[in-house]
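Below is a typical protein record.
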Amino acid sequence: MDLIFAALDQVLNLHVLVALLIGSIGGVIIGAIPGVGPAVAIAILLPATFSLEPIVGLTLLLGVYGSSMYGGALPAILINTPGTAVNAMTTYDGFPMTQRGEAGRALSLAYSASFFGGVFAIIALVMISPLLAAVAPMFGSREIFLAALLGLVLVVVTHRGMHLVSLMLVCFGIFINTIGLEPVRYSKRYAFDQPWLSSGIDLIVVVLGLFALSQAFLLLLERDGAPHPPKVKTGMLHGLREVLRYPKVASSSSVFGILMGIIPGVGEFLAQFFSYSFAMKTSKKPEQFGKGSPEGLIACEAANNAVPPAAMIPMLALGIPGEALTAMMLTVFHVHNVIPGPTLFQDQPDFVVALYICLLLLNIMVFVFLGLASKTLLRIVQIPTRFIGVMVLTLSFVGVYSLRNSAVDCLIAAVFGLFGLILRRLNWPIVPIILGMVLGGIMETKLRTSLPRLKEPLDLVSRPIAAVLFSLIVLALVLHFWALYRTWQKKRMG
């Protein structure tokens, strides 16, 4: 109880509550605007959070991260255009319900399922926090190195049909991170006697370029448009009652979200895929999936919102981000000299519990807000795309310049923005570059720290947890190559 009271003492602070309110409502609005998404918003907000207290800055970013998927369901259901990329599968059953004249029911189901998934994940993770606190100290340098390597392997393996592309982009991200002073002896690498390269390329500059500026360029190049969604009547309590009629779908989808969130490099897309597939296979009416099935909609949204709380686990316990958004949040920790990792659960357990209380309050705030303001949010969907592009472009350059008051950073961000635009046009993923930068840096530091204590190569995997992680890496690669072989064999025979 003392731990909970200490955490509440941090949360029940005016600055934290205001940050939570702004982040949660702002995240819903950002999510409801097609073409923006939480990555763009978090990238723009990052420079501003560096001057805030750690709990305040993280609460603001968590608000945007956790609530954007609520908002992303709005255009996905009403105009068949997902507000965020992870709401893509919401269109499968949400839009057909709108076409049947059940838009209000679909929105109510989506919001209620998201609320169920978020709260389910938070409760589950609070219950296993003592176990995490016990296991985290067992991770030394070699275990964290192998966990980061597992994350990179999973990033490559999970990009179906783009394995070579994602591998290339991961390696590119690792290379970018090596530019400048190396972290152990502080010697220069790939600086070519250029002063502006000596300090390296800042992660935030790359993030703003790849996510925010590339999206702004894309919006400016597209045809200007303002869709007109249908009018809806929403009843949140009715939707929550309907979700509770499908406890198996809602709970199993939330479990998939938790599992996929904990595993580095996986995230919402696989959580959605597995939960949707499982719900369809176990449903009494599988033929309705893709045609307006309430079970399909619940499965997608419950899995979506169970991921954010779970994705915090590898970041807090090991200092390893699971995907791009938590990689951005990791920088807030480092700026304030709060180092996530095995000692965080022991040294600052109240800080960890405070973050989960913030996530719980976030879901409650968003659910109440959507119950009161869904009709008003319909106007946000109608904002012209080019106006959004100009706003994102302006805010992105302001954010980049505010980092170090450097015009060179703005130029670097613009170059990465153009590169990100090319990747988007090719339908290539951007996330592997960011995870390559972050996880590559972790791998280098931890490997070089552990090398003096290794007498032979097998010592790297001699400890139990290291052996388990190495086995998972080998298993992931074997299963991946086996799947590739089976696909090649089928094509050859067919």
About this structure: The chain has a mean pLDDT of 80. The chain has two domains: 2-453, 456-494.
